[in-house]
């Protein structure tokens, strides 16, 4: 059904460690602050301890962002105002350090790697660029499957491989990024499949479209869903018929992180759509996921509810690239640092109530 690598990766994902979580809860109760005063960060630190199976869990540095880039055949249906060439042009911009995510990553101390998993044009090798093209863009999902099952499997495997490579190179936390003109169409289609919600409820304005284009985008997604009848029971089938190469790779990236017990911060609508595929393949992978922010795309909120994840930031962003994940990274790292560095009432001689 899938592949040996995907199967062993899924089998390698195990539950959170209850003992480490208990130790983290007890430690939180001893730290020099009123109980519960760090709000959601306390439970996040407990989950990070459970994921690492140690208390305290490792400090979450270095951090590595992978931006998976790919093109989309559904672009032919005029679902976005931007030319497909912008995907390739933005890859060059990422490599030159000129994109928003580069500025954010420098601020937060996050390493950036770009992965060509399916950009339309052939790219030259460059520092910081992994050439892992599965095919030159997908086919138009409204007319035929976006890709073959074999290609979807290959893209998932690419994501697993990138996660493993970044972790082997020292990363203690992974962050998702994406670049692909027209990929909000594929994201909405996937979210509709995995949540059972109507396309009209999960389709947004992407990079910025008018009302007529929005209506066409919804119709295009409905046509693709009617044509292929993808099912949440067959995540690879859903990825291959209505997904994108970056969605498949991001699903693999999440699975790869979870199998190595490394947390992964999800960015926007593309990441959460891919995370739904990962969750469908391996429900326990959800425990490794952190929602960096809430994208304004309506599908993102629907997907986050299905993942049962509360986003850390809500800034009205809809850029992608990994920007929301990078902004959230210091929050997550700070939550873990609390367990390492805060004094207890005993050690600091602070009187308890
Ligand atoms: O991350 C998000 O939530 C998000 C929301 C809207 C647009 N984007 C980015 O914009 C591109 C896709 O937008 P579109 O309108 O061409 O489908 C792609 O490169 C995404 O990274 C990203
Ligand atoms: C300019 C531009 C930058 C982006 N970054 C991520 N998606 C994008 C889409 C566009 C159009």
UniProtKB/TrEMBL annotation:
SUPFAM superfamilies: Nicotinate mononucleotide:5,6-dimethylbenzimidazole phosphoribosyltransferase (CobT) (SSF52733). It catalyses: 5,6-dimethylbenzimidazole + nicotinate beta-D-ribonucleotide = alpha-ribazole 5'-phosphate + nicotinate + H(+). Gene3D superfamilies: 1.10.1610.10, 3.40.50.10210. GO terms for molecular function: nicotinate-nucleotide-dimethylbenzimidazole phosphoribosyltransferase activity. Its EC number is 2.4.2.21. Keywords: Cobalamin biosynthesis, Glycosyltransferase, Transferase. InterPro entries: Nict_dMeBzImd_PRibTrfase (IPR003200), Nict_dMeBzImd_PRibTrfase_bact (IPR017846), Nict_dMeBzImd_PRibTrfase_N (IPR023195), Nict_dMeBzImd_PRibTrfase_sf (IPR036087). The active site is at 321 (proton acceptor). Pathway: Nucleoside biosynthesis; alpha-ribazole biosynthesis; alpha-ribazole from 5,6-dimethylbenzimidazole: step 1/2. GO terms for biological process: cobalamin biosynthetic process. HAMAP family: CobT. Belongs to the CobT family. PANTHER family: NICOTINATE-NUCLEOTIDE--DIMETHYLBENZIMIDAZOLE PHOSPHORIBOSYLTRANSFERASE (PTHR43463:SF1). Catalyzes the synthesis of alpha-ribazole-5'-phosphate from nicotinate mononucleotide (NAMN) and 5,6-dimethylbenzimidazole (DMB). This is Nicotinate-nucleotide--dimethylbenzimidazole phosphoribosyltransferase. The gene is cobT.
